[in-house]
């Protein structure tokens, strides 16, 4: 498992407008630049927030990522608690 890499990737999307633009243009190509497990990559591409959290995505990095997806807080909390 590569929680560090997963968090680094999400943080880059959150903080870097260029990275965010590349992510929204082609998430698969963006993810290809990071060493993730197949399961992590699949969860990222599916925007499976619960799985990303279980794989080690930190809540303080994951929540801003979900805000970019326009996910309401109650939905985010439900997904990470499941």
Identify the overall geometry: globular
Radius of gyration equals: 12 Å
Could you tell me the strand content as a percent range? under 5%
Alpha plus pi helix count: 7
Mean pLDDT: 96
CATH superfamily: Dioxygenase LigAB, LigA subunit
Helix % is over 70%
From the coordinates shown, what is the CATH architecture?
A: Orthogonal Bundle
- pLDDT < 50 runs, ≥5 residues: none
Oligomer: single chain
Number of strands: 0
Q: And the CATH topology?
A: Protocatechuate 4,5-dioxygenase, Chain A
- End-to-end C-alpha gap: 20 Å
How is the biggest beta sheet arranged? none
Description:
This protein is 76% helix and 0% strand. With 82 residues, the protein is mostly helical. The longest helix has 13 residues, at 3-15. Helix 1 crosses helix 2 and helix 1 packs across helix 6 (59-68). The chain has a single domain (3-81), classed as Protocatechuate 4,5-dioxygenase, Chain A (Orthogonal Bundle). The radius of gyration is 12 Å and the shape is globular.
What labels describe this entry?
7 helices, Protocatechuate 4,5-dioxygenase, Chain A, mainly alpha, 82 residues
In short:
With 82 residues, the protein is mainly alpha-helical.
Give the arrangement of secondary structure elements.
Blueprint (H helix, E strand, L loop, with lengths): L2 H13 L1 H9 L1 H6 L5 H9 L2 H6 L4 H10 L4 H9 L1
């Amino acid at each position: 498992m590569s929680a560090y890499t997963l968090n680094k990737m999400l943080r880059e999307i959150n903080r870097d407008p260029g990275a965010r633009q590349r992510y929204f243009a082609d998430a698969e190509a963006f993810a290809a630049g990071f060493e993730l497990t197949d399961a992590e990559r699949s969860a990222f591409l599916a925007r499976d927030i619960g799985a990303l959290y279980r794989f080690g995505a930190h809540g303080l990095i994951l929540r801003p990522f979900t805000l970019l997806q326009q996910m309401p807080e109650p939905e985010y909390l439900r997904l990470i608690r499941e």
